[in-house]
Design brief:
5 helices; rod-shaped; mainly alpha; single chain; 123 residues
């Protein structure tokens, strides 16, 4: 059993503590032919440390704050888009409102993409 297989099988992080757990479980696995990798993974899941470091927690907090700001922007863009659309529908000859509405739609799309990107970082 390789270390990268252990990481994949248990879903653990690659750190010194988890490597030591792997080395102990690898010895058990190699010593007993009746133990399967899946059993080692299940046992390993109970032992590994997947806690987040202070740095990871700070980054996660900053990303969540940014997502909150982007959601507020998204709400504002959506409200503006509705208002501009109403103005445009009332007078379709005035292209200014169509331009404003289309600009809001572009901002909504961009903001949603940014939120999705940040959520991927957190995943």
């Amino acid at each position: 059993m390789l270390y990268n297989e252990f990481i994949e099988g248990t879903g653990c992080k690659d750190n010194d503590y988890n490597y030591k757990i792997y080395k102990r479980l690898e010895l058990m696995y190699m010593a007993d032919d009746s133990i399967t990798k899946q059993e080692i993974y299940e046992y390993g899941k109970k032992l590994v440390d997947n806690s987040k470091s202070q740095e990871e927690l700070e980054v996660e907090k900053k990303i969540n704050i940014e997502i909150g700001h982007l959601k507020e922007e998204l709400k504002q863009y959506s409200e503006e888009e509705k208002r501009y659309n109403e103005y445009y529908m009332a007078d379709k000859t005035d292209k200014f409102w169509k331009t404003q509405r289309d600009w809001c739609r572009k901002c909504i799309k961009t903001t949603r993409s940014k939120i999705a990107e940040l959520k991927m970082i957190l995943a």
